[in-house]
Write a structure and sequence with these properties.
Blueprint: E1 10-13, E2 21-22, H1 24-33, H2 40-59, H3 66-80, H4 85-101, E3 105-107, H5 112-121, E4 125-130, H6 136-142, E5 151-154, H7 155-158, H8 165-175, E6 182-186, H9 189-198, E7 202-206, E8 219-221
Parallel strand pairs: 1-4, 1-6, 4-5, 6-7, 7-8
Antiparallel strand pairs: 2-3
Helix pairs in contact: 2-3, 3-4
Amino acid sequence: MKQAHSSIATVLFDAGGTLVHADLRFIHRLLRQAGITATPRVIRRAECASKQAIDRRMEAAVADTDETRRQPYFAAMLGHLGIEEDQAAYLLRMIEAEHQQENLWRSMQPSTPQILQELRNRGVALGVVSNSDGRIFSVLDRCDLTQFFQVIVDSHEVGVEKPDPRIFQFALEKMQARPEQSMYIGDIYSIDVVGAERAGIQPVLIDGVGAYAAAFTCKTIKHLRSLLSMV
């Protein structure tokens, strides 16, 4: 087995937005059915605006949970697309109904399993720390990803959410890992980067379209494959 060539022995991942992604094809179909024209590329950029809206809520100390952030997240996306309030309210109900039936963060990039396998081949221990609703294990299992992780921590099950450092510490303890030798990959600065830093873990922000590029000084990548040159 090839050993890791850096001081990083453990890599923890966020789930939604990092390992699995919001089903933007569903959003695209929903908009088209409502008579709204928006290309998948435009919708993807609008989703990035949603992440920054969550950052603003966190900066304003809004008393949010993962559950209560979901509607503002998609509302910001629809607002960025210029959809009027009445129509947006209808679309938000449709989005929520779909999520309740099947978690919307269910799309995976085809290269993800190969990247995780390569990290494992290098001797890196892998885990997941996710703000979720109790369903993230089943989502990852449907994508055939659970095999790569020693630990999958779902905030719903442990009773604490990012950016609280305790959820990261719980994962590290389960893996018998040290924070200074660990890295965390996530997609929302105020939740993932701030939380990892509070736990003493090196954060990496995944930002596929460069929306965060000029905003923060943390390490930023556009694709998970970039981890292979960092670990």
